[in-house]
Specification:
The protein is α/β, with parallel strands linked by helices and 203 residues long. It has helices spanning 36-48, 63-66, 69-75, 161-172, 190-196; strands spanning 2-8, 13-19, 25-29, 52-57, 80-83, 102-104, 109-112, 115-121, 130-134, 139-143, 146-147, 150-151, 179-182, 188-189. Helix 1 (36-48) links the parallel strand 3 and strand 4. It binds zinc ion (2 copies). One zinc ion binds at residues 11, 13, 62, 64-65, 144, 183-184.
């Protein structure tokens, strides 16, 4: 598996293009870009690497993660995957064909090439937030649930601090081996977060 990071949009959301190095099948995670021009480095990369895009995946339904879904689907006619409890947030994108959307649930798997990402429902930041964890336990995409030394806000109308507490207990049990790709800012690791993230202390 290879991960390429593209910070996009006003909030510098991490859009990830993830591909299977053996088959070149790939997914796009959180294309939260707004401007056409922001698609160019991503499209150029996908062309250069000759990737075959299979899915677009949203870690949750906030605008800074979904804003470029339509631009991506215009270029790559592939299904859009989002947790069933955040799907309603896609309505903000306006006129789009939702018929091919894939509604994710806890335990579902996102498969492309020889890569398997397990869907872990991690409500709190939003009701339908998910983390995607490779079946080899080496990589996790954490959206706005977990950041380096922090966690996502839980003060939105669609948030739940109580659910986040349960989610944090789940996160604290994840393997140390995971490299963590969050929705914003730098990459971290589960072992580092268990040691330095104040929200994961004493769990
Ligand atoms: Zn968010
Ligand atoms: Zn965000």
């Amino acid at each position: 598996m290879h991960v390429e990071t593209f910070p996009v949009g006003m909030l510098q959301t991490n859009c990830y293009v993830v591909h299977c190095t053996e088959t070149k099948e790939a997914i796009i995670i959180d294309p939260g870009l707004h401007l056409d021009i922001e698609t160019q480095p991503i499209f150029n990369y996908i062309d250069k690497e000759m990737l075959k895009i299979k899915f677009i995946v949203n870690t949750h339904g906030h605008y800074d993660h979904i804003d470029g879904d339509s631009l991506m689907q215009q270029k790559y006619a592939v299904p859009l995957c989002i947790h069933e409890r955040d799907a309603y947030l896609l309505e903000r994108l306006g006129n789009r064909d939702a018929s091919s959307d894939v509604l994710l649930k806890d335990g579902d798997r996102v498969l492309f090439g020889n890569v398997c990402l397990n869907v872990m429902h991690t409500p709190g930041h939003t009701m339908g937030s998910v983390c995607l964890i490779s079946d080899k336990n080496d990589v996790m995409f954490s959206g706005d649930t977990l950041f380096a030394e922090s966690i996502g806000r839980t003060d939105f109308a669609e948030s739940s601090p109580e659910d986040m507490n349960v989610t944090l207990q789940k996160l604290a049990r994840l393997p140390d081996t995971l490299l963590v790709y969050p929705g914003h800012e730098e990459t971290t690791s589960m072992s580092k977060e268990k040691n330095t993230n104040p929200f994961l202390a004493n769990l």
